[in-house]
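lol ok so funny story. i was supposed to be doing the assay writeup but got distracted and ended up predicting the structure for this chain instead. priorities right. anyway since i did it might as well share w the group, maybe its usefull for someone
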Amino acid sequence: MYDFTDEANALNSTRFATRLNSFASGAHVAWPGQSGKPSVMQMAERAARVKGLTDLDLNYPDHVTENPAEIARKLGDLGLSVNGFAMRYYTSPAFKLGAFTHPDAAVRREAIDLTKSGIDAAREAGTNLMTIWLGQDGFDYAFQADYTRLWQHEIDGIREVCAHDPDCLISIEYKPNEPRSFSLMPDAATTLLAIKEVGAKNLGVTLDLAHMLYADEQPAFAAALITRHSRILGVHLNDGYAKRDDGLMVGAIHMTQTIELLRQIRRDGYAGAIYFDTFPDLSGLDPVRECEVNIKTVQRMLKVVDRLEQDNRLSSAIDRQDAVSTQAIVHELMFGADH
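and the output, tada:
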């Protein structure tokens, strides 16, 4: 008999984090008469209104406008924890041509040292997770770069920041392109090659659903490969039309693939936060309501995952690679049986 107590306990223990900048959406409504962008704490206070939200991720250096420990204390007063920090390489215009891969050694040094400062700040804030999205590291034209040298610069930079604090987890968030036409870390396989070369024990991967979709990956398969060869340190849920990083609400388009991904990471032992990397600010959505719906959607999906795991028909059909049966079973457990 299905144990709904276990299901409720699992849902209650799930941590949900989100993108802080989402809460600048509709600023004229939230802070009428205010000129300029909302402050970090204004956005955090708005995020704290979301039912079920437990954590925030902070961009470095953008969101670290005061002592990191003090920021963490203020967030704690709002009932929120710091899940992790995420590096943003916008402080120097030179980074547009590359952060760890810039042709000028002085610029590469600036990017690496900035990352080390971010790691130190994350630790001061009480978290041991730093996500690095190296979107600037890539190329746009044929004959623009020496690919071997570019790759070596990337490996050297990642290795150095991993060695800076071995107790801090460094997670690579891969993405096919944007802002560069070609990213050096475009997909799971290439990222795993980099991780193998770096050889650092504190290095892993952040999965972003929209990035995987437009990398032409089946998300659960990518997750299984990463768990086999490295480890998943972060999961960013959102959705999109697999052409770009749309940042749409969870389950808006690829509901079945999202459920399969959640099933895969649960089977593989992922116990970190589920982070919503969605963009309500792009179209002026209410970010509080948007985040609450994302949380409810994932909770419903996790209930489906639990029921799938309790259904012996599914494992048997998967063993046979019987796609017709698996689709029928999944849809029945998602939408209910016919009567």
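The mean pLDDT is 95. The first strand starts at residue 16 and ends at 19.
back to the writeup now i swear
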